[in-house]
Structures are given as C-alpha cells and as structure tokens.
Amino acid sequence: MKNPYDYLVNGVGFIFIDLLFLGKADTDILPDFIGYLSFAYGIHLLPSFHNLKPLSKNFAIILMIMSFFVELDRWQGYKILGDIGVQFMQFLFIVFMYFVFQLLLHIHKNKPLEAKTFRTYQKFMAFMLCGFVIQAFSINLNASMRENVHFIGSLLQLLSFFLFLNLCRTCNKYYKRIKENKVHSQ
User: Fold this and answer.
1) Distances in whole angstroms, Cα of residue 135 to Cα of each of 28, 53, 58, 130, 153
2) Most confident region among 12-26, 87-101, 167-181 by mean pLDDT
C-alpha cells in the first residue's frame, strides 16, 4: 500500500516552496497545483471514512484548479492577480490545512499520535497565520523594509512546514510499526 503521509509531505513541499518566496521567482519550478494534486491523492489514501475526507479532497482539487490559474497568470507575465492573488491562495491554503488537520485528528483519535497531532496543529496554525499576516502587511511597506519583514513571515512559515514534516514522519513510523506487527502476528 502506498503511504499517504509521503503524498501529504510532497504536497506541502510543492506548495510551500512557492509560499516561502511569495511568487518572487518568475518561474515556479515546483508549481502549487502539483502539490494540491499530491495532497488530494494522499487524502484519498488516508484510512478514514469520515465526512471530512471527501471535503478535504475536493477542497484540494478546487485549490489545484485555482492555483493553476494563478501560476498561469505569473507564467504569462500578466500579473493581473499580483501579490493579492498569491496572498488569497495563502489564506485558502491555511483554511485547507485546518481541514487536513481536523481529518488527521479524527484518524489519530484515541491513538498515541492524537496529542502530537493536536500540538502540531496548534503550532502550525499559529506560525502560518502570523507569517500570513506579516507578509500581507509587508505589501504596504517601502521596498527596503518589505524584504526584511517578508523574511520574518517566511521564517515563521518555514517553521510550520518543518512541524508538519515532523508530524508526517512520526505518523509514517507509527503506521509502519503497526503494519509490521500485523505481519509478524500472522
């Protein structure tokens, strides 16, 4: 069976690389829509039948389509959406991650991972929201100060990325141990 946590990590990696640089690069080597596609597949593979699963998966597909148009706008150089479009996609990513964490909390309920998932969720959301607000307000600053303030927001988002990466690594190890124990007991 394929590991859903690998797809979640790949998804957040593809999306985060763009969020970190806030569209400063003209060409995004790791387009966000591939990250959302990876997220949708990883969510599909998660072992749950909760009603949050189809909602999260459909949200990932909608974000994949929206991010394709934001990327297309940047690739063609029109920049019609500009920084506001990128900020809007960041906001939607934070909302999406709320649903992903709620699904993970449901899956990890009454398991040793529940407390770690909840702590990671709290820290992830705090860092992402602080980084988002800092970057959103940095648009209004002069150019010399904007880069420094933007860098602080990026560091907060980088920290949230590593928190999610660590959670997925821990979940991967936990479910791998369970799978090995089932094989050995048979």
Assistant:
1) 19, 30, 27, 9, 6
2) 87-101
